[in-house]
């Protein structure tokens, strides 16, 4: 087992190929340990060079609505009346602090996601 830091795209590709080979190795074996270490190295490299950005607040709300099988009307009372919900989801108006608190409580979306800036529609 020769494991070294991933310092380049070629190192990354080589690590991915090797991980494919040892991925299903049993735990507490030489290859199992290698798979575990490679996974950590690959994860660190991907976090640095291929970060996944959080969606904007409205997209996060829409994603969670889909996950929870909610419709726009289900947000009435959580962030306001029917027209206010439409304005928010269509990016005509910004979320308020009270809306963010209620969305965090009911949809379990982190306030740190909901407070991010986003572009309003014109």
UniProtKB/TrEMBL annotation:
Transmembrane feature ranges = none
Keyword Membrane annotated: no
Coiled-coil spans are 9-36
Sequence ranges assigned to domain HTH cro/C1-type in this UniProt record: 61-114
Establish whether keyword Secreted is in the entry: no
Alphabetical keyword list: Coiled coil
Name by which UniProt lists this protein: Transcriptional regulator
